[in-house]
Amino acid sequence: MERERLGPWCSPTGSPAPLSCETGCGEGSWILVYRLLVPTQVSLLSMEEDIDTRKINNSFLRDHSYATEADIISTVEFNHTGELLATGDKGGRVVIFQREQESKNQVHRRGEYNVYSTFQSHEPEFDYLKSLEIEEKINKIRWLPQQNAAYFLLSTNDKTVKLWKVSERDKRPEGYNLKDEEGRLRDPATITTLRVPVLRPMDLMVEATPRRVFANAHTYHINSISVNSDYETYMSADDLRINLWNFEITNQSFNIVDIKPANMEELTEVITAAEFHPHHCNTFVYSSSKGTIRLCDMRASALCDRHTKFFEEPEDPSNRSFFSEIISSISDVKFSHSGRYIMTRDYLTVKVWDLNMENRPIETYQVHDYLRSKLCSLYENDCIFDKFECVWNGSDSVIMTGSYNNFFRMFDRNTKRDVTLEASRENSKPRAILKPRKVCVGGKRRKDEISVDSLDFSKKILHTAWHPSENIIAVAATNNLYIFQDKVN
Amino acid sequence: MEVQKEAQRIMTLSVWKMYHSRMQRGGLRLHRSLQLSLVMRSARELYLSAKVEAHEPEVPLLPVRSSDPRLHQLREAEAVSEAAPPDSEPPSPEPMDTREAPRAEETPAPCAPRPSKVSRKRRSSSLSDGGDVGLVPSKKARLEGGEEEGASSEVPDRLQPPPAQAEGAFPNLARVLQRRFSGLLNCSPAAPPTAPPACEAKPACRPADSMLNVLVRAVVAF
């Protein structure tokens, strides 16, 4: 793509430019709103350490040297209104950010997300029967739509899904008869009058309580959870099976997909991701390590081993290489908000499929094709196994996914323009405009371009999220969470 | 030759990764193991095709082995006896103990599940079976430095099995590696060529310390 000149799409006073109203994918239109360091855990992940001594340090540490592996963000998810943003990390914690309320005095402060709640969702466990450790890393978080004052989310590690209720408490009862203000029991002989306890305001307290624990249903590692549009059920998918749960019932789940072969020696593919259709509660898709997607209808049969639709693109023989099978594995699958399309991410590309056309995707975007010749090195350093996610924007016109060197890419489906942006500490002055980046493939490297060999493969953006209705994105770069928004906002 | 070397390197790397994946927290990852085995298989095919071009002596044995029905039985016996199926996911220091439990509950395999000890006995007894002696390298043979034919003939078996079987070997790889390394460590440096790690090996001792050296030796051997 030709090099675009940097420039904000609108003046700082906020008069919008036409392009950014449409898509927000224009170069130079993204600004950093907030860079957050997820609160750091002091303890380490060693097995010998007593879990009880683990402390959660609620202060924001600006220094990378305090970051431990437990702080690596492993999932990011906006809730249905975009008011809340949840992150899960390798240490099993969930941190929820809440968007600041709009105020007339500080128009520009809208869009900043502050910590709302932090809680330990999962702890490391040990399966004694199989003699293996179960990681506490949060693989996925999914919000339930809000139905009352409290917020509900599902969080999962490799084996157990939990339903958490996050609620606010800003009043407390005072004036008990049998207890004094500190909660100590009063001597009944001293009670001479009766009073009615009253609710008095208190400092806002946000508490998270586990309401349901859905355990012991997965032999393999859970890779996805997805809430159904009926809001009564959800599914959890591991490498070989998908289970359907009812939120109210924790001791049973229905197995709806089982691809485990009778003889494990015949195993050729695993399930890599699964998602319910956004509107049709009977429809879901799951992707495989062979680069295929299956759409299933739960009305057809109880066990959806036979797909209703099968999406597969024939392999391009010219691209065939030693690692073809690995890079064709789909790492993420997402329905569009409309429900008409699905997007899949494999190692080098993002593809958009029309549900009505199974034989090939309608769009293919190259995320970092310059890595195609580096697959061997990427295999050596294990990067070839990285599982990148992909997201749609609210209007399904732009798709976004991550790459290496803390780069992330956006593709505008309408204009066919794309942009590479970087989430980095150097560019992290608040409200700094993001400069488009470019990777130089070969030959002469222009100024500001980065050559493929100088990319930092340890800095990878696997998890991103897009606000459901606005051009606000959350990008997780290792233990940092970046929030960017379109300058129009 | 370059291709061969590269394929060997990839194979070494894959095997090392498989072994290493057992050590990581969370247990054996099925997807990762599958991907590693795919690369392993591609590397082996590449290596073999390169070898075929170079007219190696093992070549004539290839078609025979692949179609040998006894081979399937033997391989299944090996696979069952080597380790539990991948869904057991045990990074156990005692392979024998964990093998039995998961296999009993999870494997409706064509071969009846049987205790590992018994199967190992069966294997060694099968070694004495003259017809099969060439298919499986014997412990004795390895220690004594003989049976080069047997070992190398086993190589093509493993390297060009039907795809389903190849996949099946991978979960056992790590555990077999462990045993294979300890076996190799006990051998002299001029040890006979050993089969690739996917093959059966003698009982487990302890993981090799100089894993990479051993790996290189194992790979170079064939």
Automatic annotation (TrEMBL), chain A:
Recorded name of the encoding gene: PPP2R2B
SMART domains to which the protein is assigned, alphabetical: WD40 (SM00320)
Protein name: Serine/threonine-protein phosphatase 2A 55 kDa regulatory subunit B
Keywords: Repeat, WD repeat
GO molecular function ontology, one term from the record: protein phosphatase regulator activity
InterPro entries assigned: PP2A_PR55, PP2A_PR55_CS, WD40/YVTN_repeat-like_dom_sf, WD40_repeat_dom_sf, WD40_rpt
Domain of life: Eukaryota
UniProt family annotation: Belongs to the phosphatase 2A regulatory subunit B family.
GO CC aspect terms: protein phosphatase type 2A complex
Automatic annotation (TrEMBL), chain B:
Source organism superkingdom: Eukaryota
Biased composition (Low complexity): 125-136
InterPro entries: IER
Start-end of Basic and acidic residues biased regions: 96-106
Disordered: annotated segments: 77-172
PANTHER family: IMMEDIATE EARLY RESPONSE GENE
Family indicated by similarity: Belongs to the IER family.
Record-given protein name: Immediate early response 2
Lineage of source species: Eukaryota, Metazoa, Chordata, Craniata, Vertebrata
